[in-house]
C-alpha cells in the first residue's frame, strides 16, 4: 500500500509540475453573425467549426490541461491558417464560396470536425440533416451567371514566369501533352483541363497509377468560365496552371509531389514562401490512398472504333452545355492546333482535322462543387480537304443540338494558356 501511495504521489507531483509548462496562449475574440448566411447555417458552423476555424475559440477546462493543451493549441493554430471564418465579412463573394466549399468537402470526407475533437466535444458532431443543410446552402450560392462573352482573352508570356517559392521552375510545353481529364468547377467559376506528360500516360496504359511513377507531371489548367445565353459555358481568360511533379525522395516532405502554381496573365507564382506546399498537401489529403491525386484518367477505349484516336491529338478547348448537362472537348491535329492558336474565325486550312467528344456530366464524388465526364454521348469528326471544305461525320450517339454542326465545331475558340 505504501508503494502505491509513493507512486501516486510521484505521478501526481509530475502531473502538477507539467501544469507549469504551458504553450503560448490562444487569443480569442467573438465573431459576429456571418453576413448573408442564414441563421441555421451560421449556428451549425459555430457549433462544429468555430473552435478551430475562427477567433471565437471556446476552450473547455479539459482543453487547457498540460500536455493536452499543446495538441489543442496546435490544432487551433493550424485550423485558423487553413480556414478562418473570422474574416468572412471582409472576403469577396468568390472567396466566401471557396471557404464554404472547402469546409463542405472536408465535412463530406469525414475530415472535419476532427474525430479526436468530436470524441471529447460530442455536441460538435454533425448530423446527416445538418450536413444536408450545409450542402444545399453552399450549392445555392454558385448559380450560373451570364458573363460578357466579348471578353478579350489575353495571351500570356512565358518570359514572365519566375520560379515558385519552393524553387520549382515553370514547365513549358504542357499544351502538347495528352489530356488526363476535364472538370467543370462551378464552385469557383473555372473550367479545367488536366494534362499529363508521357510518363503519366505510359503509367495509365500499364495500369500503374497508384502510386504514380517518379517523373509523372500533371498540369491542371484553369480558365474563367464564360456563360452564354444559350447555356454554353466556354473557356474565357486564363486563370492559373498548377503542376504536380512526382519524385518520392526529393519531395518526401510534401507527400512525394512537388507542387507549384502560376496565376493570371503575369504568371505570378503562388505562395508567400516555400511552405505554401503544405496547403496543397492538406487539400489533397483525402486522396492519400490514391497517391494524393483527385483526377481519374478518362476512359480511352472508345477510340478503338475511330479512324484516329482523339486523345492522341492536341486539346484545343473544353466546353460545358449546362442546359443538357453535358460537357465536351475539342481536339485537333497539328494543323488545326496551330491555326486555332492564332485564329478564331473557324476557317481551318486544308489538312486540318478536328474531333469533338461529348460526355454526359456527373457530379465529382471526390469534390462537391465540380462536374466531370461520365459516359460518352457522341464523337464528331471534322476533316478539312485541301480546298478547306469540311467533311462532317458522326461516329457515336446522336447530334446533341441537331442540324449541321460544322460551323458550331469549327467556330470554337481556343482556350489560351502558356
UniProtKB/TrEMBL annotation:
It comes from Dinghuibacter silviterrae. InterPro entries: Cytochrome_P460, Cytochrome_P460_sp, Haem-bd. This is Heme-binding protein. Residues 12-142 form the Haem-binding domain. SMART domains: Haem_bd. Transmembrane segments: none annotated. Pfam families: Cytochrome_P460 (PF16694), Haem_bd (PF14376).
Amino acid at each position: 500500500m505504501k508503494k502505491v501511495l509513493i507512486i501516486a504521489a510521484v505521478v501526481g507531483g509530475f502531473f502538477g509540475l507539467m501544469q507549469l509548462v504551458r504553450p503560448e496562449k490562444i487569443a480569442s475574440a467573438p465573431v459576429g453573425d456571418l453576413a448573408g448566411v442564414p441563421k441555421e447555417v451560421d449556428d451549425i458552423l459555430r457549433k462544429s467549426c468555430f473552435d478551430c476555424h475562427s477567433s471565437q475559440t471556446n476552450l473547455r477546462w479539459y482543453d487547457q490541461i498540460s500536455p493536452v493543451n499543446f495538441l489543442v493549441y496546435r490544432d487551433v493554430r493550424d485550423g485558423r491558417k487553413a480556414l478562418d471564418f473570422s474574416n468572412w465579412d471582409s472576403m469577396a463573394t468568390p472567396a466566401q464560396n471557396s471557404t464554404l466549399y472547402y469546409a463542405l468537402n472536408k465535412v463530406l470526407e469525414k475530415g472535419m470536425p476532427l474525430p479526436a475533437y468530436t470524441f471529447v466535444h460530442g455536441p460538435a458532431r454533425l448530423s446527416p440533416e445538418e450536413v444536408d443543410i450545409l450542402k444545399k446552402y453552399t450549392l445555392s450560392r454558385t448559380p450560373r451567371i451570364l458573363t460578357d462573352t466579348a471578353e478579350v482573352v489575353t495571351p500570356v508570356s512565358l518570359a514572365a514566369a519566375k520560379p515558385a517559392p519552393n524553387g520549382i521552375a515553370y514547365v513549358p510545353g504542357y499544351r502538347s501533352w495528352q489530356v488526363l481529364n476535364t472538370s467543370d468547377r462551378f464552385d469557383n467559376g473555372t473550367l479545367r483541363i488536366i494534362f499529363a506528360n508521357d510518363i503519366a500516360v505510359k503509367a495509365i496504359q500499364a495500369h500503374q497509377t497508384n502510386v504514380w511513377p517518379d517523373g509523372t507531371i500533371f498540369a491542371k489548367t484553369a480558365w474563367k468560365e464564360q456563360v452564354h445565353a444559350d447555356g454554353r459555358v466556354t473557356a474565357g481568360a486564363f486563370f492559373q496552371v498548377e503542376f504536380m511533379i512526382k519524385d518520392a525522395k526529393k519531395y518526401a516532405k510534401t507527400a512525394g509531389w512537388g507542387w507549384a502554381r502560376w496565376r493570371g496573365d503575369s504568371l505570378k507564382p503562388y505562395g508567400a514562401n516555400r511552405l505554401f506546399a503544405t496547403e496543397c498537401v492538406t487539400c489533397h489529403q483525402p486522396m492519400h490512398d490514391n497517391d494524393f491525386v483527385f483526377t481519374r484518367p478518362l476512359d480511352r477505349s472508345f477510340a478503338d472504333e475511330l479512324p484516329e484516336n482523339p486523345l492522341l491529338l492536341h486539346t484545343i478547348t473544353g466546353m460545358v452545355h449546362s442546359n443538357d448537362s453535358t460537357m465536351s472537348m475539342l481536339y485537333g491535329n497539328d494543323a488545326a492546333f496551330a491555326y486555332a492558336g492564332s485564329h478564331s474565325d473557324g476557317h481551318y486550312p486544308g489538312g486540318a482535322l478536328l474531333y469533338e467528344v461529348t460526355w454526359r456530366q456527373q457530379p465529382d464524388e471526390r469534390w462537391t462543387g465540380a462536374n466531370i465526364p461520365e459516359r460518352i454521348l457522341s464523337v464528331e469528326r471534322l476533316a478539312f480537304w485541301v480546298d478547306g471544305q469540311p467533311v462532317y461525320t458522326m461516329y457515336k450517339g446522336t447530334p446533341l443540338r441537331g442540324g449541321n454542326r460544322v460551323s458550331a465545331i469549327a467556330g470554337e475558340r481556343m482556350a489560351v494558356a502558356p
